[in-house]
Design a protein that fits this description.
One of its GO terms (molecular function) is DNA-binding transcription factor activity, RNA polymerase II-specific. By secondary structure, this protein is mostly helical. It has six helices and four strands.
Length: 197
């Protein structure tokens, strides 16, 4: 029979005395590990309970570290200016938890981005196919924003006025040339006078 394998015994987790660590290197390592654990537990607390939290700690080297939900500034401001405080539960929208103002800004930026994408796409289409705007399919108008439609409307009105003006100039020119080439009915031909008519 084989001898029983001996397992290597480790120290495992053991209880330590909570007192100042004298070794500077060990103190810094312990601070770093425990800070990460503290921030993790703070995040879990806000996730589980929906509360607001701010944790600010200073390292042995006097460097500041902070964690906050929704933010450290928000929590501190709610303590300093309680009259202006708004609970996140009052301003949360949907499951994503964005505030209304942030959601509105995001929506506006998305609209602007979509409009810019449409303009870029139309511009590329015109450049690649050398098409003018009047050669583009009528369906492309459906993708235009209100500002673009207003600009197009103004351009079309201006185009109509220019076409009307040119047509009128051309008609005036042609009617003048017609008057010159047609005989005046009041002037009689010399041959007609001689014949006695």
């Amino acid at each position: 029979m084989e001898p029983a394998k001996q397992r290597k015994l480790s120290q495992g987790r053991k209880k330590i005395n909570i007192e100042r660590i004298e070794n500077t290197g060990n103190r810094q390592v312990t601070f770093s590990k425990r800070r990460q654990g503290l921030f993790k537990k703070a995040g879990e607390l806000t996730t589980l309970c929906g509360g607001e939290i701010a944790v600010i700690t200073f390292s042995p080297g006097d460097k500041a570290y902070s964690f906050g939900n929704p933010s450290v500034e928000h929590v501190v401001d709610s303590l300093l200016y309680p009259d202006n405080y708004t609970s996140p539960m009052q301003v949360r929208v949907g499951e994503d938890g964005l505030r209304r103002k942030e959601q509105q800004e995001l929506d506006e930026f998305q609209r602007q981005l979509e409009a810019e994408k449409r303009r870029t796409k139309r511009s590329e289409q015109m450049k690649s196919g050398n098409k003018f705007w009047w050669e583009m399919p009528i369906e492309s108008i459906n993708n235009m924003g209100m500002e673009e439609l207003e600009k197009m409307r103004g351009a079309l009105k201006e185009l109509k006025l220019n076409v009307d003006k040119k047509a009128e100039e051309k008609m005036m020119k042609e009617s003048t040339s017609l008057k010159i080439s047609l005989p005046d009915p009041t002037i009689r031909n010399i041959d007609d006078r001689a014949s006695g008519e």
